[in-house]
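hey all, quick one before standup. I had two proteins in the batch that finished overnight and I want to keep them in one place so we stop losing track of which output belongs to which input. First protein below, input sequence then C-alpha cells straight from the run.
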Amino acid sequence: MSLGLSEDRNRRRKRRQFAGALFRWAVVLAVGAGVGVYAHDVGTDIAQQQVSELKVHLTEEIEAGEKLRAEIAGLQAALRTERDKVADWSSRYEAEVPSEREKLILRAVRERLDNGISGDRILAMIAITRDDVACEPLGPSKRFIINNEIDQGANGWVSFADGAVTVTGTGTAARNEANQPVAWFDPGQPVTVNFTHRGGEVSQVTGLLPVHHAVAVGKVEYRFSVVAGPRAFVLVSGESCRIS
C-alpha cells in the first residue's frame, strides 16, 4: 500500500513539474511575442519617421533646385541683355567715332578754319574733290629757305604756275653744341608753311616735315609736298589737277 502511495505522489510531482515547465515556456513565448510586436511597432515608427524626413529633405532639394534653375535663367537673360548692349554700343562706336584717317581730315579742316579759311570754301572744295582727276607735274622741285628767329633773309619763297601759288615758311632755329641758335632752321622741329593764292588768300599748315597740302585756285587743285632739303632749305614739289 505504501508503494502505491509513493507512486501516486511521484506522478503528481511530475505533473506539477511538467505544468510548471509548460507555464514557464508559455511565459517566455508570451514575452518573446510581446517583444517582437513591440520591436515591429518601433521599427515601423522609425521607418515611417525616416521616410517622412526623406520626403521633407527631397521636397527641400526640389525647391532649391527649382530656385537655382530660376536664378540661372535670370542670369542668362541678364547676360544676353548685357551682350546686346555691348553689341549696340560697339555698333554705335564704329558708326559715330571717327577713324584715325577721319580724325586727320577733321584736324585739317579745323586748322583751315582757325587760319581764316571760310567754311563755305572748305565745303566747296570737298564737294569738287575727286580721285579720278587728271594731274600734271608742276615741273622740277624748287627750294627755299625756312626763315627763323635768327635769319629772315632772301630766298625765302618760291612760286608755282606763273604765280598762282607762292610758298613760304618759318621754323625754329637749330642750335650748336653750345646750345646757341644758328642761322638755319631745325628740321626736327615743326615748321609752318604758308600757301598764298593769287589774290592774297593764304592757307597755312603746321607740322613736322614732310608736309603735304592742297590748294584750289579756280578749277585747278594744286597739290604740294614739302620735304627737308640741304641745310636751311626745304624742297617743294607739286602737281596741278584739273577739276571738271
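OK second protein, same deal, sequence then C-alpha cells:
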Amino acid sequence: MRYAVSSFYWILLCFFIAHVDASDLEPPNMTFIPLDASKSEGENTEQWSFNGAEWWLRNTNLPSVSVYPATNDSPTGAAVLVIPGGGFQFVSMSNEGWPIAERLAAQGITAVVLKYRTAPTPRSDDDFFEFMGRLFSGRIDPESLRAQRARAVSVAKADAQLALAWINENAAQYAIDSSRVGILGFSAGAMTAMAVVLDPDGGDPPAFLGAIYGDLGSVAPPKDPMPLFVAIASDDPLLGHQSFGLIEDWHGAGGSTELHWYQGGGHGFGSFSKGTTSDRWFDQFTAWLIAEGFTTQAM
C-alpha cells in the first residue's frame, strides 16, 4: 500500500476537531476482553479523550476486544471484526466502533470491536492537541514518521490477527459459524484489515473484507481473494483522489468486488449522517452480505 507521509497524516487532520472541555462528560462504558497479556507494553496506559464530537481511545497498549452478540431472534451465524480508524494515534470508538457494532448485532450479526495498540501520545489533552498540530505543520522529521507508520501498521495487524483467532476459538459460545467471519475496517482500520489479508503467514484469513474509506492503491491480492466491499466518498480530502488499483487488482484476480464511490461524504462518515448518499453505506454493506451468502435474513 502506498501512502506519502503527508497524505498519511491528513487522516489525522480529517478527525481533528476543536478541543472542548469534557470535564462534565463521561466516556462510554465498554467492556473489553484482553487478547494476549504478553502483548502489553508495560502498565495499561489507555485513556479516553473527547474531541468536541466523539470519544477517542488513545495510548492503548493492550490489545482487547468488545463483543456485541447478535440481538435479534434469528442470529445469522455471521461475525464481523470491526476495526475503527484514527490514524494509529487513537481509536475512533464512538464513530466507527460501538455504534457500528450495535447496528450489526441488531441484524443478527455478532460484532467484535478491536481495540488495537496505538502510537504513544502526550498524556494531557492540551499537550495531545498541540502534538497533533505539530504533525500537521510538518515539524516532525518525515523519516521518523515513516518508521512510526510502518511499526503502527505491523502492530495493529498483529492485534487484528489475535482478534480473528479469538473469534474462531470462541465461536461456539456466540453461535458463530467460523466460515462466516469477516473484517470491516475504517480508514486506518481498513489499512489494518488489508494488511491482515495480504499476510500469507497470518493464519486463517477472514471470509470477507469491508474497507470503508481506506487505501485504493494497487496490491497483490491473496490467492483466491475473499469478497471485497469498498465504500469511499469522491470528496474525501485524504483518499478521494486515488485511482482504483485495488479494485482492478482484486477483480483481476477473480475476487468478487463491490465499490461504492459516493459523490459526497468526506472522510470519516462512519456513523455520522452527512446528508449525502454515503449515509446509506451500512444498508448497502448488509445487503452485500446477503448477496454473498454470508447472511440470509431480510435486512
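Flagging for whoever picks this up: The first strand starts at residue 33 and ends at 34. The longest helix spans residues 142-169.
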